[in-house]
Design a protein that fits this description.
Layout (H helix, E strand, L loop, with lengths): L5 E4 L5 H10 L8 H8 L4 E6 L2 E10 L4 E9 L8 H13 L4 E4 L6 H5 L9
Parallel strand pairs: 4-5
Antiparallel strand pairs: 1-2, 2-3, 3-4
Length: 124
């Protein structure tokens, strides 16, 4: 049974942890990248919590009335495979649901996963 996450907007105190997670996952965020997301769409980046522990995060940032982007989709390794990432994913998609175009960057081994949600490669 999957416990529901408490999904809350990113707070200033979460930025260092989220940036560290991204680096641990092999991404190279700049020191201000997460803050840029936060300033572009204050409602577009969230952290999932179990009690007082951060479990994962996701960004679903609205850039315009016609375009949004999914990113920073990370779940801490010890919490993977329990449905927490799916809860974060759905939360971000709900935020962007009315937009005609949603982009994301996918690792090559994840393209098929995103295709199941209606995403198609725009380039290879």
């Amino acid at each position: 049974m999957t416990v529901l996450l408490r999904i809350q907007p990113l707070q200033k105190g979460d930025i260092a942890a989220v940036t560290d997670w991204a680096r641990q996952a092999g991404f190279a965020p700049g020191s201000g990248d997460v803050a840029i997301y936060r300033h572009t769409d204050r409602q577009g980046i969230w952290v999932g919590w179990l009690g007082s522990e951060r479990v994962g995060c996701i960004a679903g940032v609205r850039y315009t009335a016609a375009y949004g982007f999914l990113g920073l989709y990370l779940v801490q390794p010890r919490w993977r495979g329990r449905g927490y990432g799916l809860q974060l994913w759905r939360h971000a998609l709900d935020h962007l649901a009315d937009l005609p175009c949603i982009g994301l960057e996918a690792a090559p081994d994840r393209v098929a996963d995103y295709a199941g949600w209606g995403f198609a490669p725009a380039s290879t």
